[in-house]
Amino acid sequence: MQQSILLDKAIQQYLQHLSFRKYSEQTIRGYDIDLRQLNHFLTHLVNAPIFIDEVTAEHLESFQQYLISQQLSPASINRKTHSSKSLFKWALAKKMIAANCALEIIPLKLPHNERHFLTKAMLQQFLQHVHHPTIQIIAQFIANTGLRITECTQLLLTDINWDLHTVNVVHGKGGKSRTVPLNASIYNLLHHYIAEIRPKNCTSLYLFALPKTGSISAQYVNSIFKNASTEMKHPKPITCHILRHTFASNLVKNNVHIAVIQRLLGHANVRTTSVYMHTDFKELQQAVNSLNCLGGAFR
Questions:
Q1: 288: how many CB neighbours lie within 10 A of its CB?
Q2: How does pLDDT run across 274-296, given as a tens digit for each residue?
Q3: Which among 204, 89, 227 is positioned nearest to 154, based on CA atoms?
Q4: Could you tell me the pTM of the whole model?
Q5: Which fold is adopted by the domain 7-104?
């Protein structure tokens, strides 16, 4: 085992490792926030800087209990737990620690909530309340391709293959790339966007660009979506991710095979995609009504 180093320094090296592995800036930022919080907690817990090989399972369990006491959602706590597990798995491979104490930490059980999505009518109503022309194009683009908002904002003009009617997603989650076909409607809409809406004489390489910055941020897009949701009096804010859910849910309703949906969404595991297998009460009622298992009439 190599010479012991401080947890803070190990975190710095791990983040550099993620950068070398071409993880997205947003992903690295998330790991940075989670692991800095862990280091801050442990430093105060032991009242001194802590070395990575001094961290125990009890320390990590204390951190998990602290997060629970702060009333974070189980999903947020599990994300931070995953960040810790990834750090210590890497540290073991680098021989910074003799054993991986994070293996003993059990993630919290998540409540089963079906993903929220929009019907076709709700989507059309929502688009009418998105008054920013570029943001409206992005909303329709996500609903027709299923791209993540960070993937959209990183798209370059050269990522669109006009001959093959496809978009090449180079900056996918986890550094993975994929190719997504464009249907005729979104293909024509992109042509319209570039000819009529995208800033003239714009030197930016990004597909979606604003005049002042030559780019666009996910936060700005979601802020416009939030205003549109309020204006249409939708019960909860409609986000970019909900439009991605809408894309997936519509494919399910069209009986597209789940493995195909998995590839389009860029999911590493088909179990992640399975959350889009929605059912509503009407479908449940129809399923029950289709049965007739009684042996005879009541007397």
A1: 8
A2: 666 654 555 556 666 766 655 55
A3: 204
A4: 0.63
A5: DNA polymerase; domain 1 (1.10.150)
